[in-house]
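Hey Z.,

So I finally got round to the adenosine-5'-diphosphate thing we talked about over coffee. Here's the setup:
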Amino acid sequence: MTGHAGDGATPAVECEGVTRRFGGLEAVSQVSLSLAAGERRAIIGPNGAGKTTLFRLISGEMPVTAGRVRLFGRDITTTPCHRRTQLGLGRTFQITNLFPTLSVLDNLVLAALGLGRTKFSMLRPLWTYREPRARALETLDTVGLADRRDGIVRTLSHGEQRQIEMALALLTRPRVLLLDEPTAGLSPAESALMTRAIQRLDRTITILLIEHDMDVVFDIVSRITVLHLGRFFAEGSPAEVRQDPRVQEIYFGAGEVTPC
Amino acid sequence: MDVAATRAPMRLVTGLAVALAILAGLAPVLPSYVVILMTEGLIYAIAAASLDLLLGFAGLPSLGHSAFFAVGAYTTAILVTRHQASFGAALAASVALAAIVSAAIALLVLRATGIYFMMITLAVALCAWGLAYRWVSLTGGDTGIVGIPRPRVPWVGLASGTLSFYYTVLALFVGCLALYLLLIWSPFGKTLVGIRDSESRMRVLGYNVFLHKAVALVIAGAFAGLAGSLYAYYNGFVGPSTVDLAHSMQFVLMVIVGGPGTLVGPLIGAFAITFLEKMVSVFTERWVMVLAAAYVVTALWAPRGMLGLLRAAR
Ligand SMILES: Nc1ncnc2c1ncn2[C@@H]1O[C@H](COP(=O)(O)OP(=O)(O)O)[C@@H](O)[C@H]1O
Ligand SMILES: [Mg+2]
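And the result:
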């Protein structure tokens, strides 16, 4: 876990000229980005700036059109998504992406199975395996959903589903965690709880956070990268970025009322 | 070990054991044409349940399942009539060949998802029919392969009688059922449901979704091959009509009418449709129309199949 984190010179995540084209649209254009191990960084930018697409390129859900992606110095540009997860890359989704027909516990058990060999076993019922179940229950406790373990995920509230979204990512034991608007659609109270939960995560986990709520961003990260129209636009501390008139302009220019 | 988690499976096993006891105990007192139909029902139940692994569990809407049934049926027909293969050898070869063909086809069809997956698997079913029809030297073309004798079964001898063949099929059915249950309860079975619910989430959790789907296709293909092999023995004749598109649709319908993703539903669906076909054909030639009507009724009023209806009624 700390083997790489101790090597301060190697960035945890490195994007070099990363580009993604959709037909005529360049959704992500020549973005370069470097995160030190253990760093907590936010990515902001108006809707359509290419933030989610950049996450997909880093996580391998989508191939890059050009550029390179490195994880702890290792080139993963063409590594398939599931292998990147095994290399320590975790991610949550902006639009809740769970297993809606399964129980909360089964959702977490599937997450706990993802990294091991047990997932291929066909010889014994799942409920006879102790380890994934124990890890799932433990995580269920930490996100405070222990009493909902047998509920079918489809029937849970949006707030509860956002918590499971986070729990699934944590069960993959990420060293780098990509969080795509974790507070999307949450009430102010729920949002505050989510922020606390992220703050309390293991400090060795490198976090890249997409978030619109500047209060959340301030509480979690030390640096912000601004994207606009798919391009790198600005970078700095939260205070610098908030005061940057150019940043205010792109937000208001895009018709969005955000306090940054 | 989670004791609470075993409750539903235990109920299911109890229910299945009762149903199997009835199927086994009733046969000697039933008229032989009913036993013959029950034999056919069991064979189709093996095939329908294997399709349910894809359609209901993994969310892979395959319309090409008759192709693997065809591989099993023709393999057995050819080996038995031309090479005097034993029952065990014919079964094993049918299963193995269906699995191999299924693996090769998986590489092709898994490039597509959703409606495109349906179209490609449909094309696979059509190819199987086309080969059966045109590859005359191997398949006998339109004439098919006739004169497949009943199998010689260990401990039983020649299962030529209606009852002895029925019990042979029933025994294999029980074996398949046990394997199906093991599969859907296993970690691997759960990963298929995960893929059905969200492929993108599975990938991000570290699953090689393609591999899991391919393994599911191979397993389902192997079981369909076994069903096809038994069908060849049952019917005594294998021809293009055994493997036409209507057959593929019939498998899909058995799953949908019974209740996809339930395993038991498709077993019931297979029996229901087998009996319905025979009853309807007394009155009309238009079986396909009746099938279509059954599909429309299910889609409109019982989207979760007969098992869904039963559960709702409770
Ligand atoms: N799969 C796709 N196909 C075509 N266009 C896409 C696709 N995904 C995103 N886009 C486009 O790329 C741009 C950036 O989208 P996205 O990365 O979701 O923005 P953000 O997350 O910053 O709001 C948008 O204009 C969007 O319409
Ligand atoms: Mg987005």
